[in-house]
Amino acid sequence: MNSAISVRHLTKDFRIGIRGLKLRAVDDLSLEIPRGQVYGLLGPNGCGKSTTLKVVLGLVSATAGEISILGEPSATSAARRRTGFLPEAPYFHKFLTGRELVRYCAQLSGVAASELDAAVEDALGLAAMNEAAGRPIGTYSKGMLQRIGFAQAVVHDPELIILDEPTAGVDPVGSASIGRMIHAMRDKGKTVVLCSHLLGQVEQVCDRVAIMDRGKLVLEGAVEDVLSRRDRHVMTIEAMTSAARTAAEAALEAHGAKITSVTHPRRSLEDLFRELVTGSRDA
Amino acid sequence: MNDSLRRTLWISRVTFLEAVRQRFFAFLLVLSAAMVLSSVSLRVFDFGHGELKFIADFGFGGMFFFGSVLAVVMTAQLFFSEIDNKTALTLLAKPLSRPEFLLGKFFGAWAVLGVFVVVLAGLQGVVLWSREQELIAAAEQAGRIPTTFSIVGLCQLVLLQWLRLGVVISIVLAISSLARTFLFTVVVGSLAVVAGQLQWIAQDAFLRPTDSPAYGAFLWVSTRLIPNLQQFNLADALVLGSSVVEDGALIGVCFSGLAYLVAYLTLGSLIFRQREI
Q1: A3-229 architecture in CATH?
Q2: In chain A, which residue's Cα lies nearest the Cα of B276?
Q3: Nearest C-alpha of chain B: how many angstroms from A87?
Q4: What ipTM was reported for this prediction?
Q5: For residue A95, what is the nearest residue in chain B, using CA coordinates?
Q6: pLDDT tens for each residue of A32-49
């Protein structure tokens, strides 16, 4: 009952062509996604990430296996009521305004009429879409589409939010904005499942990750655990002279340690880009 | 209002808004309206059947033909736009069941065709009424009995045509829930409409004795599977009073139409539940 999503021995086969050739998209996958964390589902294109999410949401039936969401069998209306979903490259009715879309989704998700206005404005505020909410969706940029998609996913205050490639095609500034929304959700105690192949972003926002390849789970664990190399250490030193370096090497060698490389720290290109263009966010 | 009905209505509302914004709907509406209006100037080609009958036949023919085209193409387009653009993914990930989604599509499309039928029938009524006034004046001068039309009959015909188009929409949705492509749905849906128009031939054949049990079984199945769309064409009897509609016949036609509508929507829902989005 502590898992937000529990997947046990999930297998999904697709039948292809007239002869019904079998393509195995997910192969005996078992996962336990804990509540209240940001969970990254990683893998190359075609590894079965999106199919897994679709099975979890009941959009596609499983060939074998059991899935539950927040303790309820997946694909039930009760489970989906507590779940929000942002599909990959979301497309919405272009003639609706952002506010109308979020309202429409809130109504479909069962938000009470008395709470509707507040829920819609909260979701728009969280996605930083208040100002553009009156414009038709057809006029939105890609980043705005993702943000309004995020707003429609969280408008009914779900306990579990599933995001399929939420930053695909979005610039680093928009991407950082979505990262902040994910953190805001975690701070509210929500579980966020993030499906992506943008490893840098996943590393920044996720608590745990699972890596899939060819339909199978190849690695699962806390980000800190899977990325740390416990046998290596990094020190950042200011104003190091060659004499200081020689002395440091000698001192370390005296204790059996050895310096294997000395480099200058670098900031990432993404950090530099965000630092330079933060003022030009689309609105 | 319960949650299920509310969700269905929200889907139908957005479906309606999407459909009435389509150029295809506007194009067919204008084309049909032009056909109704042009019937006045074309009435010289009435082939001796009377002006009002010619105007009614021409106008209702346009309503029937373009209404059928709209019911098949627009319904298929509304369904596949949700599937192909993946908006269905967003919607069906919410606590919305697939039958609710399909019913929402149905009611949205049916409402659009309701607008189509009412606008054209209103125009047709105005054209018939204005010509009727001229014919009455001319008949009084000549001492003849004038030909007239029935507004009540026109309203009844509007309901019948709307129901007929509802049956067509339900058939197209049942096909859509199974089909993979828009084109396939339009082709098979169009063939179903043609089969419905010709169903009376199978009905006639079924009533005649046959030696072949297989042929008899085929006729039995086809006369029950395919609705008789000709039974809704009561324009002459209802609007022009050229023949008498028996008591209960109108209700019988309505019940038959509603039964097919419900049956095809149920079938579509059952198929759509199994579909992988």
Answers
A1: 3-Layer(aba) Sandwich (3.40)
A2: A60
A3: 7
A4: 0.83
A5: B18
A6: 999 999 999 988 888 888
